[in-house]
């Protein structure tokens, strides 16, 4: 046992003995593991308090030993007992020397490439956290490992690793038949995107000097405003038409193909299967069942475990990017093997996409439920294999993950983070969907209770109960069936200028769950909420997963 873990072992045992003799009795030797995990919820002195240090958002707060020392000291002063340090961002870049991942200083992204080349963020945080006996878990973005905008990262360097996207878009078609995909309606325009602004939602198109705007009335182009020349001229949206707004590649397509007086069509639909790097999404995801991808992720984990004295490994984005992936030849082959049938119409026999107004609507095909279960089974199998891999490396290193708490919708990412004992009645779920649940493979689970309404009553029936912190906490505990310790997470930006509601949300989570995760450090600093945390977390607590007897019993289940 490493020195740090031995010290934490004895410390946890001493603290736990005090807690257990001064609070609700909990006996690790009596009852089932599920009884143990359920009973701990009632113990106010046994709560995980986790602060997430997001890598990209906090680069300039964590780029020197002095800044790290200040942040970790504040973390300890607020009685936070666990840090999740994000060390591999969604682009696949890292702030430590690595054989498998590019360093931030190598990036083309100006937000990253200034980071000190010879600086090891992990070692710096570990050194400071040790002073306060704070746990440190290293987070890696698992299947997201490339930046599409800057065309870099491991997923970009290895095109065969990428997910294949079932890309269905409305398209703009000009008179000569040239087309360009529409990336959205009535939303902010991103890099290389083409957006349509309609009169139903806009009086004026939200323009800037980096784009071009085409005014269309009765399907005819009446004006073209190149904002690079005019300097962000205001563009009213006509009542009998719309505005086509393009940036980057979309802007150039408009300059090359569209003229005043010609007809435009925006009703047609284009369907393609294409690598994720050829889409406009920001992050390049990798296929979870590709053997080379899985080996790459395990190499990253092994490097971290072997080189650093850490408490745990956290997985983020351990999923598919969305419902539209992965439609590669490999996935088709493995899916057909699993169902014992050949798919004649690929991917239409899985599902088709129709448009209702400007919204995409999935129309399930004959193999839709089997496909949903198969993807979830793939993620389950990855978690099980990764748990075993990590236990073989170092059984003292804890295994955990972050997921969104919206279990009824999370099938779109190919994930069932619940218990195998949980049988949800969803119209998309196959009868045996519960078999894909992976909660029992985790030492703890963090679920995102990312809602501004704290109580179910505050929803006033506008949305399902789980669109509140209270309801999402209830659903998280119900879906996991006490297979593991569950910590509710808050997205702090949702409580900006609402400190009292933020405190209520914390109290709600600590009442209903095993602990709390706060996302993210950047907002604590931005809002100067350290004093608020010291007020709410006024006493030290024991982390449920840090108690060896509890964890041993949970793992034996």
Automatic annotation (TrEMBL):
SUPFAM superfamilies: (Trans)glycosidases
Stretches assigned to the Glycosyl hydrolase-like domain: 276-396
Cited InterPro entries: Divisome_Glycosyl_Hydrolase, DUF4985, GH, GHL10
Domain of life: Bacteria
Residue intervals of the DUF4985 domain: 425-535
Signal peptide (residue range): 1-28
An annotated Gene Ontology molecular function: hydrolase activity
Keywords for this protein: Hydrolase, Signal
Protein name: Family 10 glycosylhydrolase
Originating organism: Ornithinibacillus caprae
């Amino acid at each position: 046992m490493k020195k740090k873990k031995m010290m934490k072992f004895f410390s946890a045992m001493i603290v736990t003995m005090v807690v257990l003799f001064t609070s609700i009795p909990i006996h690790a030797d009596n009852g089932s593991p599920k009884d143990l995990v359920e009973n701990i919820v009632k113990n106010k002195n046994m709560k995980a308090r986790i602060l997430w240090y997001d890598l990209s958002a906090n680069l300039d707060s964590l780029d020197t030993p002095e800044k790290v020392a200040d942040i970790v000291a504040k973390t300890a002063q607020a009685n936070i007992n666990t840090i999740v340090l994000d060390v591999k961002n969604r682009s696949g870049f890292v702030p430590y020397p690595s054989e498998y991942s590019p360093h931030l200083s190598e990036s083309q992204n100006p937000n990253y490439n200034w980071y000190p080349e010879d600086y090891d963020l992990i070692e710096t945080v570990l050194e400071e956290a040790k002073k306060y006996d704070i746990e440190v878990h290293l987070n890696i973005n698992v299947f997201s490992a490339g930046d599409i905008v800057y065309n870099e990262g491991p997923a970009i360097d290895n095109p065969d690793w990428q997910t294949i996207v079932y890309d269905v878009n409305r398209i703009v078609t000009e008179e000569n038949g040239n087309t360009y995909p529409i990336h959205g309606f009535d939303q902010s325009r991103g890099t290389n995107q083409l957006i349509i602004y309609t009169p139903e939602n806009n009086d004026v198109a939200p323009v800037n000097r980096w784009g071009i705007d085409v005014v269309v009335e009765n399907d005819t182009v009446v004006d073209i405003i190149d904002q690079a020349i005019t300097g962000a001229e205001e563009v009213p949206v006509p009542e009998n038409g719309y505005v086509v707004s393009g940036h980057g590649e979309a802007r150039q397509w408009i300059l090359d193909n569209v003229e005043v007086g010609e007809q435009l069509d925006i009703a047609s639909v284009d369907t393609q299967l294409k690598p994720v790097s050829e889409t406009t999404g920001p992050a390049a995801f990798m296929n979870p069942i590709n053997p080379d991808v899985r080996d790459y992720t395990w190499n990253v984990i092994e490097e971290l475990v072997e080189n650093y004295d850490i408490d745990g490994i956290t997985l983020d984005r351990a999923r598919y990017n969305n419902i539209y992936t992965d439609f590669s030849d490999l996935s088709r082959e493995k899916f057909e093997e699993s169902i014992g049938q050949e798919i004649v119409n690929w991917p239409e026999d899985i599902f088709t996409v129709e448009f209702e107004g400007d919204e995409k609507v999935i129309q399930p095909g004959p193999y839709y439920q089997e496909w949903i279960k198969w993807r979830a089974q793939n993620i389950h199998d990855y978690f099980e294999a990764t748990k075993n891999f990590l236990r073989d490396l170092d059984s003292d290193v804890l295994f955990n993950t972050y997921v969104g708490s919206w279990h009824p919708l999370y099938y779109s990412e190919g994930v069932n983070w619940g218990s195998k004992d949980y049988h949800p009645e969803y119209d998309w779920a196959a009868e045996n969907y519960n078999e894909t649940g992976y909660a029992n493979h985790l030492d703890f689970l963090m679920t995102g209770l990312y809602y501004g309404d704290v109580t179910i009553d505050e929803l006033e029936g506008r949305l399902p109960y789980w669109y509140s912190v209270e309801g999402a906490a209830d659903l998280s505990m119900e879906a996991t069936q006490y297979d593991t310790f569950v910590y509710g997470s808050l997205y702090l930006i949702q409580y900006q200028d609402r400190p009292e509601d933020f405190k209520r949300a914390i109290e709600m989570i600590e009442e209903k769950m095993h602990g709390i995760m706060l996302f993210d450090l950047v907002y604590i600093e931005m809002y100067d909420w350290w004093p608020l945390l010291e007020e709410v977390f006024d006493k030290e607590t024991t982390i449920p997963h840090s108690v060896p007897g509890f964890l041993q019993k949970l793992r034996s289940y």
